[in-house]
């Protein structure tokens, strides 16, 4: 915790605060799907974000919160501002997450192992049915408790399930429906396992672990397997205070 009192470090981390409000929307470009391949891949994806997307997502954030003036340069794709932002993300990861990485990963690996065994024993239907109570699978709809109304249509794409230590209470998805469909869900964890009193608190710390998703994805497809393969064929819709996935198969 003492590291966070260093003035140079605090100056870096202040860049992150306006972009990551305690709750509600924050830009999708800060949670790149490539982050599932590790922090470096996630950083490269952020640096490669098209200017049009930066502008659109930051405008959406600005409509909800009053952003500082430097965010305008970020919205225009200023390379130096992007470099400073990603440098701050790496610094935070090194100070707040890296010391606990093995224990964080163990929590996620444990969840993934349970889901993998379920797929082997009961197939994709069993996996989706086993996500209760946070999700409810009733073919062809996956219904998710969510604090706002949201609709996600797969339109022939797969759904990537990502367990996360930092996801709290509700599963979450990306705001932009044109991006790879991702559903991040919380794993069971005991905060005492990692000495959580030493970790800076907050809700939206998605960038911390290679996209907040700690990078352990599962794809479920109609043959009941796990992996990167399989041709996604689903569609998805949502209903009141829920995010629902409607699919002939969910990948």
Provide an overview of this structure:
- Helices cover 32% and strands 11% of the residues.
- With 251 residues, it is α+β, with helices and mostly antiparallel strands.
- The chain has a four-stranded mixed beta sheet with strand order 4-5-3-6. A three-stranded antiparallel beta sheet has the order 1-2-7.
- A hairpin with a 2-residue loop joins strand 1 and strand 2.
- The radius of gyration is 18 Å and the shape is globular.
Features:
251 residues, alpha+beta, three-stranded antiparallel beta sheet, 6 helices, 7 strands, 11% strand, disordered C terminus
Secondary-structure map:
Elements: H1 7-13, H2 39-47, H3 51-62, H4 71-75, H5 79-97, H6 101-129, E1 135-138, E2 141-145, E3 160-164, E4 172-173, E5 182-186, E6 218-219, E7 242-246
Parallel strand pairs: 3-5
Antiparallel strand pairs: 1-2, 2-7, 3-6, 4-5
**Which strand order spans the largest sheet, edge to edge or round the barrel?**
4-5-3-6
Large-scale geometry: globular
Work out the helicity level: 25-40%
Number of helices: 6
State the major sheet.
Answer: 4 strands, mixed
Quickly give the structural class. alpha+beta
Element pattern in H and E: HHHHHHEEEEEEE
Low-confidence sequence ranges: 196-251
- Rounded to the nearest angstrom, the radius of gyration is 18 Å
In short:
The protein has helices spanning 7-13, 39-47, 51-62, 71-75, 79-97, 101-129, and strands spanning 135-138, 141-145, 160-164, 172-173, 182-186, 218-219, 242-246.
